[in-house]
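Inputs:
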Amino acid sequence: MGDDAAVYDAEFKAYLTKNKWSKHFDYAPIDVIAPYCERDCVYAGMMLAVYERYIEETQQGRVWSTERAVTKVLWEMEHAGIGTDLEYARGQLVPMKERLEDVTSSIYGYSGYEFNINSTQQLNKVMGNLGVKSTVKTTKNNPSWAAQALAQVKHPIANAILEQRGLGKLVKDYFEKALEWEDGVQHASFKNWGAVTGRMSCANPNLHSVAKNPQDLSGDVDVALLAGAKAIVGGKAVGAKYSDETEGLVSVRRMYVPRPGYRLYMLDYSQMEMRIFADYVKDEVLSALCEDPLFDFHDHVAEQVWGVSKGDEMWDFYRFKAKGINFGLVFGMGINALSLAIDSTKDEAKRYKAEYFDRFPRAYEFIDLVSKTVEQRGWIRNRFNRRYWIDYDRSYVGVNYLIQGTGADIVKEAMVGIREFLVERDLMSRQLVQVHDEIIMEIPDDERELVLPVVMGIMEKRRIETYLPVEASVGGPSWAQKTVVELAA
DNA sequence: CGATCACGC
DNA sequence: GCGTGATCG
C-alpha cells in the first residue's frame, strides 16, 4: 500500500507500545485507536481489490469462496465449544500430580542432586555425570536429549525423564487448562489460515495435539498391557484402549464429553493422505483398490514391494517399513529422517526406498515432477488450484504441500457443506472440532438417523477422483471411548 | 526471542 | 512435512 502506510503503521505501533497499550488494542483510548482502525479497514479494502484480481488470474476462486464460507463454521464451532467433564479433570489431577512428584524425585535420585529437568543444558550435565552420551544432535548441532535420543539410553533415568515431560504436558496444557472454563465448555480458537499448506490451526487449548494414547499412572506395566498397550514408553500406554474400569490409566480425550441431549460423533477420513497420494500418483491399480473403504495402503505396499503376506514371519517387519516409507514420502522426509523413522541404517533406508520405487515407478515420477517444477518455476498448485510459492532449495516440501493442502481443502469444503445442510434443515446437530482429517460433531439421538448418513455423504462426495471413505464413531460417551457406527444399508 | 521438546495429523 | 505451547537462557 506504499511506504507511507508502512511508516504510519510502524510509528503508530511504537506509540502504542510506549503508552503500554500494545498488548490489546482495546487498552488504548477510543479517539487514539479509532483513526488507526479506520485506516486499517481502508487498506484492507484496497488489498482486497488487488488480491481479487490475483485470485481471478490464478483461478483460486473456489478456494477463496470456501475460505470465506468456512469462517462462519469456525465462528460457530468456537461459539458452541466442547463439553468437558470437569469432575474427571479435577479427579485425575490429584493422582497425576502425585505421580509427577514421584517421577521427579526418582530423577533426582539418579542425578544425586536437584536440577531443572526442563533445561536441556542442565540435563546434559547430569547425563554426563552418569557417563551417558547422546548419539543424536539437535539442529544447532548440540547434544539432543529428545525422546529419540533417550530411547538409545540404557540408564533408567531416560524413561523417567520421558514420563516427567509427557505427564507434565498433559497436566499443564490440558487438565489444568480445563479448569479455566468454569462452566465446563472449552472454547478453543481455530484459524483457517493457520498453516501455509491450507490446513487449519487451533489454540487455547490446541485440540489438534490432544494425546491419543492413555497415560499410565500406576507404574505397573501389567495395567497398561491389560488395556492392550503394545508398549509403555515414559508411562505412555501406546495403543491402549481407554476404559473407566482400568484403574491407573488417564486419558485427555476422556475429558471431552457431549452436553445433555447430545452424543459425540467422530467422523474420520480413512488413510486420507495416502489415498490422495494414490490420486496424484495416478496408479490405476492403486486407485481402484481405494474403492474398498477397508483398503489398507501400508498392507498393500508391504505385499507388493516385499512379497510378504499377513501371517508371514516377516510381515510385521515389512509392514513397519512400508508404513514408514509411505509417511516419509508424503512428509517429504530426507533419507536421514527416514532411516530413523523405520529403524534402519541410512544405507538400508536407501535400499528400501529404491525397492519401493522399483515397484511403484509412478510414485517416483510424481515426486520428481513436483520437485523439478518447484525448482524451475517456483510454484505449484494443488487439486483446488491453491497455489504454493516455494524456494528452490526447499523443493522437497512440495509433495507434502500438495497432499496436505488437498486434504485440507476437501475437509473445509465438507465443513461448509455440512453447515449448509444443518442450517437449511434447522437442526440441532453441530460441528465442534476439526482435526485435519476428522470432524467431531454433537448430534441429538432423534437427529442421528437423518444427519449421520447425510454428513457422511457430504464428506465422501467426490472432489478428487479417488474415493475417500469416512468412518463414523460414536463417543462412549467421551472422545476417548469410540465405537464404530455401522449404518444400515 | 531462538532453541528445544512434546503432542497431533 | 505442518502446526501450538511451555520452558529455558
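The mean pLDDT of chain A is 89. Flag for discussion at group meeting.
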